[in-house]
Structure formats: C-alpha cells, structure tokens
C-alpha cells in the first residue's frame, strides 16, 4: 500500500550533525538520571576496537621495566579461534524457511509453497550462505548484525547488502529498530569503482579527480533512505551532497514488516544482554588472556637465562671475550676463577596459574577445550565429549536464533519490495525464474505474493549442532516415529526441493521394481534384455524403457498375427480382422468354452465337457 511520507527528508547537513551527535551520544538510558550505568555509542565502538585488535593478534605487553610493547601473543588467541570456529559452526547447518499459508484451503497452501520457493531464490541469487557466515562473525565480535534490503525497478530480485556494524549507529526501542545512521570511509580509488555512478552524477570531474578519500553516510528510517557523500583531500572536505539512495523513490512509499507495519529497511539481529547494551561474546576475556600471555612472555624471557646463565669471573685477564669453542680464558693467579652462575628454577606455580587463567578465559568465551580435541580422560565416549560441549552448543544456538530473526525480517522486506517495486514498474504479472524450485512451481509472478510477508526461519533439529549430529538426530526421530520422512527432508539443507525429492524416490522405487521383474521373468528373452540395455545407454529412465519394450512387444504380436492370417487366407481360409484370433476348426475349440444354448431354451445350457479328440486334416493334393 502506497503511503505519503509524514516528515521532510533530512538534508546533508542534518545527517552529518546527527552522526556527530551519535558518535559520543547515549543509546542506553538506565533511568531518569544518569546513575553511571548509561551506555554510549563511543564505549561500544571502543570495545569493538579492542576486540578487533585482540583478533588480529595486536596485543600489548608490559615488561618489568615499565615499557609497553606491541607483541604477537605466545598463548592461544582465544578471541580469533573462538570467533572463527563460531562462524563455521553456525553455517554448518543452514536455516529452513517456511511461509504461513493463512488458512487450510489448498490454494493458500500452494501459494505458501510458492513464496517459500521465492524466498529460497532470493537467498540463492544473493549468496545468503556467505552472508550467513558474516552475520555470525558480526554477532560474535560486535553483538550486532545488519543487512540492507534494496531493490530498483531494473532489478529482477531484491538485493541483500551486509552493513559493517562498526560504522552503524542504530536506535532501538522495545527491541524494535527506530532508525540507523551508517558511515563508511574508503579510498578514492575504491569509491570510484564501487560508486562510479553517484560520483559522476553529483560531483564535478575535477572534484572527483582531486579527492583522496570518500565518506559515505546513509540514513535509514521507516520512510526513506538518504545518502550523503563527502569528498576529502588532505583530511579536508572538498564538498558533500545528499541524495536519495534509490532512484525509484520506493523508500518514500514506506517499507513494511511481516505484520504490515512501517519498518526500517534493515534486517538486524542483536545478542540479548541484561542491561540492554550491545555487547559481543568475547568482551570479557581480554583481561584474562592478557594476564596469561604476560606470564608466558616472562617465562619465555627467563628461559634464556636457563640456557645462557651469566658468568662469574675473578682475576681473569680476558674476561670480556665472548665464550666459544676457541676461546681460552687466562687467569692472573692461582685463585683465578671463571664459571657460570646456576639460575634459579622456574616456579611451578606459574604454570598452575597459567592453566587456571586459560580455564577462566575458555569459560568466559563458552569455548571448552574439548572442542579442539583436548580430552583429559584416557577413555571417553562420544556422548561424554558431546555433553562436555554443552556451553558451546547453547551459545551456537543463541547465535543461530538471532541469525534466524535477521532472515525473517530480511525475507519480509524482500517480499514487500518485490511486490511493490514490480507494481511501480508495471511488472507485476511478468514471470520470474525460481532458481530454487518448490513443488510443481518453476516460476512466479510478483502479484502472486498477495501482500503475505509472514515467514518463519528455524534451524530445526540442527540448532546448536554440527552437520553430522544433525543427521543422526533426524535419523533417530524418523526411526522412533517422532517425525515423518517429509519433515526430515525439509530439515536437510542440501535438499532444495523436498517435495520433488519424494517424487524422485518414488520414481526410483517403481523403476527398480520394474527392472527386477524384467530380469526375473523367464518369458523375457535375451534379445529383449539387450534392447533394454541399449535404451538405458541412451539416458532413458527404466520406466520409459519398459514402456518402450512393452510397445515393441505389442507391435510384434500384432505383426505375427497379421502374418498368420495372411498365410491362412492364402491357403483358402476366410479372412479376419487383423489382431483377432483365428477361429479354430471343428473339434479344436476350447473344450472349456461355454456351449451356446439351444434356440428357445431359457437360461444357459451346460453341456458335458467333450473328450479330447485328435482331428487329422488332409491337405489338398496329398
């Protein structure tokens, strides 16, 4: 439904001023007055910067002399290992999409299957699996994942664009996104490649050629998206301008969510926290990891003294010479002495403290050592290992739920834009290809969406599990009768068309039964089997090949009967219709055939069965 905007679009100066105010502004208010628990965008961004430095291995080490130095960690970089493994675990099982039919009538159910295929097609053309991986990484590292849903009149399908949360400044109320300001900065060369049209459209050629950096600010609200581009030279603004991000002005007509309410055209997922702040999954492990790394750095530094302990020299003439295989120290007297001072041994408590710190860091990150194969028990079953990964499974499931919520919001926006933009462009009844088929549908028209945007995204039986454990869980549910095979197929992510898969299986079973019957039938000769093999070599299915053989056999039978009748006619027998059985001579009729009743008799006349008789027919001329 087309709506009229209720507020004037902000200009470039207003958007830049809004961004400046949000950079150091509050986004969490604890109460009427600031009690010290309010949270600021700047604090969240600083925490994300710290997490990124830890992830890259840019750790700061403080030496005993008070000098701070940036060094590579000598302990496991738990931030990087945990975040990377989290991303791989989340995408190992792909989410499943279902659409609400809105009723029990068959047309509504068919339309729901069609919309399901449409949503899978959106995911296919936008490489949603790669976006899914980035969403999981963003949620783990920053606590927030964002995607913009865009569509222009010349586009066939909506496009999904990942937004880096490091440059995003969203505002939430009651877990609903109110608006968002997104900033990104890039080199002039990258901007000229990615935004060539906008630069040539809104800036002069000499300005574009002189700029060194480009800053792009996007304002998203429920009625429009406005973009501001600023060109920089020597960190000074050459010029900035604002314009609508989508040339079709579809944003002015307003985006809708699943319930048809106005919505910001951004799909988002946010990790839930007790205080409402945006927080990643590794925010609390920096201190523990840094302490563990500092202890090991000092131990490694001290190990040099264990190998090369200092010398003690008394009354040595050349005590400044470096030790070596050809070095000879000369004493001045009988009391001269040259020896190494044995260093003190490393305190074993240091290693105990390091192990304690590692356990604390893994507990804070919900990343047990068993995930890496570190099992202290000499004998451990697979179920024991899985039970020891309980905290990791719960964390993965929480991330998957947020990814699923992001997909639901994204799907609703995509369906809305596909229907709305196609109507504006006059393409509502133009067929579009379903790259991922659903049932009998191979294409769809945007008008078939019919304003129904409600969808559900779940990870089903695979929530929190890897692919192997998911298959085992599905197999157990089907074996115990808790789930149907159709449900199991729908939960299997590599089956893009579960309904079509059941038809393929039925077709294969029928084909195998036909083949088994042909191979075991004694009336099927070798020539027919050779014919069957030749048909199968051409790529024909067993069902079609069997039908072809049956047709050939019928034609051969008719031909033989026609030849027999022709031979009989040449011998003086009366002709008969092709395909009809030749009438047996008297005495050769089927003795079990009913004898016609005599004229005038009521009912059937059951004559006794005549005995079998041999009839000798003398051929003419013999």
Structure description:
- The chain is an alpha+beta fold and 622 residues long.
- It is 42% helix and 17% strand.
- It has 17 helices and 20 strands.
- It has helices at residues 12-23, 41-56, 78-92, 106-125, 128-141, 188-194, 196-202, 205-210, 286-307, 349-365, 382-388, 390-424, 467-479, 485-490, 498-520, 526-537, 542-570; strands spanning 26-28, 39-40, 59-62, 68-71, 96-99, 144-150, 159-163, 168-173, 176-187, 213-220, 225-233, 236-244, 255-256, 262-263, 266-270, 311-314, 337-340, 432-438, 441-444, 455-458.
- α3 (78-92) packs antiparallel against α5 (128-141) and α5 (128-141) packs across α12.
- The longest helix is centred in the middle third of the chain and has 35 residues, at 390-424.
- The chain starts with 11 loop residues before the first helix and ends in a 52-residue tail after the last helix.
- Residues 1-6, 245-253, 578-593 and 595-605 have low confidence and may be disordered.
